[in-house]
Fold this sequence. Notes:
The protein has helices at about 5-20, 25-30, 35-45, 55-70, 85-95, 110, 125-140, 155-165, 185-195, 210-220, 235-245, 265-270, 280-290; strands at about 70-75, 100-105, 115-120, 145-150, 170, 195-200, 225-230, 250-255, 275-280. The chain is α/β, with parallel strands linked by helices and about 290 residues long. The protein has 2 domains: about 1-70, no CATH class; about 110-290, Rossmann fold (3-Layer(aba) Sandwich). Helix 1 (about 5-20) packs across helix 4, helix 7 (about 125-140) packs parallel to helix 8 and helix 8 (about 155-165) crosses helix 9 (about 185-195). The longest helix has 16 residues, at about 125-140.
Amino acid sequence: MTGTIxxxxxxRALVARAxxxxxxxxxxxxxxxxxxxxxxxxxxxxxxxxxxxGLEEHARRDVGRLDELGARLITRDDAxxxxxxxARLDRATQxxxxxxxxxxxxxxxxxxERAITVTGSRxxxxxxxxxxxxxxxxxxxxxWNVLAASAYxxxxxxxxxxLAAHGSxxxxxxxxxxxxxxxxxxGLRDTIAASGLLVSEYPPGTSVTRARRRAQARxxxxxxxxxxxxxxxxxxxxxxxxxxAVRHRVPVFAVPGPVTxxxxxxxxxxxxxxxxxxxxxxxxxxxxxx
Length: 290
C-alpha cells in the first residue's frame, strides 16, 4: 500500500468496517452491487441496518493503519481473493466475509491452494508439540502450507515448525491485524508476517471476543484443503473447526495419542465416529490428499 488514499480504497475500507460487525452484512452484499454502490448506500443511510457513528473517519484511520503496517485490504473484487475456498461459506450459510485484511508478502489465493489447517489444544503436552512439529515439517517439505490460529499450544508449534522448515505459514486471527493476541506471540506474529501471512476479517484495532473466535473457526476450515487435529478435549475450538470442515466436506485428519490423556479424547472420538481419518505422519496426509 502507499500513503495515497484513493476513493476505491476508502470505499472498500468503509464497507468492510460497516459489514464486519453486522450479522446481516453478507446477505446485504449478496443482494447489492459493486463496492462503490454499497458504500454510497451506507453513506446515504440506505444500508438497511444501523451504521456506527464516525464510520467515514474510522475507515480513513483503518487505511492509514494498514499503510503503517505494510498491510493490505482485499475484497471479492481482487485477484488474490480465494474464491474456491470461501465460496463454501456462501453456499452453506452466506457467511463469507466481505473483506480480509492481510499482512505479509505471500498471496492468500496461492497459499490456500495447498493449505492444511492445524489445530489442537492450547495446553498442548510435550507429545502434542513434538508430533505437531514433526508432521508440519514433513508437510512443508512436501509442498503444503500450514494454516493455524494465533494461539498457544498446537497452533504455535505448527507455525514455528513451518517457519523452521522455510515454509510460509498463515495465521488466521480473531482480532484486528494490529492486535497482539495472545500478547506473548507478538514476536511470532511478526516473524510469520515476514515470510507468510497474517489474515483477519476485522478492521485494525478490533479486540478478541468469544464470538470472533467462533467465526475464526469457520475460516480455518473453509480456507484449507484439510484439517488436522493433534490434541484437544471435546467441545473446544478444534471441535468447532472439525464440525465446520465436515459441513463443507473438507477432509479431517486426527492423530491418536495415549488413552490416559484427556487431550486425546477429541481425536479418538472423531476417528471412532468416522468423522476423521487416523494419520501418524505428514506423508499419510499427503498420500490421502494426492
